[in-house]
């Protein structure tokens, strides 16, 4: 009967437009569990699970974090409260975006009028100098120069793809930290592996050593400019722990 029909993870993935990996990740953080797992490991989903997935995807479309979605679905947080908190975050994001738009407009105006802009004006809203100084101090001039050379070698399409990858990886790490799954969980450690490759790409293809990668994790905790990307120091602490565990297994 239709009421008892069940769908495989592949069927749900195809119909809902999400990857099987995403569904498995949702399962690992107890956000969406299959109604049954067969002896061969085949995951099956019923109508109740599909309805829950629909709500999850709808809330994700609104931009809510997985932590907020879990609280809304399982912990009694009202949808109104969840959206109100999200609006506050969006307003802060808008403030930062406005700074960058203003800086870009000033750059355009200066170019049109043949003026020379100061470094401070050019990078207003990006705090580029402070990041450069931090990277040079911690990892040396060569690491910074390789990063700049790598970025300069990209065409616009490649640069856009790189930035999209930035957002995806950082958001995935933030979601994992907020979800409360252990830092040594397989899903979390897999994300750290992706993050390491992302860092390597930004370093011009040079793989960070164990000490360098752990040093980067320390920076995420120590510097609010970085910890804020991951939703605060508590999340940054969790990510630092996950990175430390990953280096013990994958780096010598």
From TrEMBL:
UniProt xrefs under Pfam families? MerR_1, TipAS
InterPro entries in the record, alphabetically?
A: DNA-bd_dom_put_sf, MerR-type_HTH_dom, MerR_fam, TipA-like_antibiotic-bd, TipAS_dom
Task: Write the record's keywords in alphabetical order, separated by commas.
Answer: DNA-binding, Repressor, Transcription, Transcription regulation
Among SUPFAM superfamilies, the record links this protein to: Antibiotic binding domain of TipA-like multidrug resistance regulators, Putative DNA-binding domain
List the PROSITE patterns hit by this protein, alphabetically.
HTH_MERR_2
Q: What positions does the domain HTH merR-type occupy?
A: 6-75
Q: Name one GO molecular function term.
A: DNA binding
- Name listed for the protein in its UniProt record: MerR family transcriptional regulator
Task: Please tell me the species this chain comes from.
Answer: Bifidobacterium mongoliense
Instruction: Provide the organism lineage as a comma list.
Output: Bacteria, Bacillati, Actinomycetota, Actinomycetes, Bifidobacteriales
């Amino acid at each position: 009967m239709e009421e008892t029909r069940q769908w495989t993870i592949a069927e749900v993935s195809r119909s809902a437009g999400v990857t099987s990996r995403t569904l498995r990740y949702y399962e690992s953080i107890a956000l969406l569990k299959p109604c049954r797992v067969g002896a061969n490991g085949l995951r099956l989903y019923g109508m109740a699970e599909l309805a829950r997935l629909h709500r999850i995807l709808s809330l994700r479309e609104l931009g809510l974090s997985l932590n907020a979605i879990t609280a809304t679905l399982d912990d009694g947080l009202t949808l109104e409260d969840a959206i109100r908190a999200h609006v506050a975050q969006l307003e802060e994001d808008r403030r930062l975006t406005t700074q960058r738009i203003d800086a870009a407009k000033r750059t355009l105006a200066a170019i049109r009028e043949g003026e020379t802009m100061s470094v401070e004006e050019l990078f207003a809203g990006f705090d580029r100098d402070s990041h450069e100084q931090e990277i040079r101090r911690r990892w040396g001039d060569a690491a910074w120069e390789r990063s700049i050379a790598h970025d300069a070698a990209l065409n616009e399409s490649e640069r856009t793809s790189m930035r999209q990858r930035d957002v995806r990886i950082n958001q995935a790490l933030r979601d994992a930290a907020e979800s409360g799954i252990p830092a040594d969980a397989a899903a979390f450690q897999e994300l750290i592996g992706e993050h390491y490759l992302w860092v390597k790409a930004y370093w011009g293809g040079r793989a960070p050593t164990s000490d360098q990668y752990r040093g980067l994790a320390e920076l995420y905790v120590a510097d609010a400019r970085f910890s804020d990307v991951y939703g605060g120091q508590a999340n940054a602490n969790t990510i630092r722990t996950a990175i430390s565990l990953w280096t013990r297994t994958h780096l010598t």
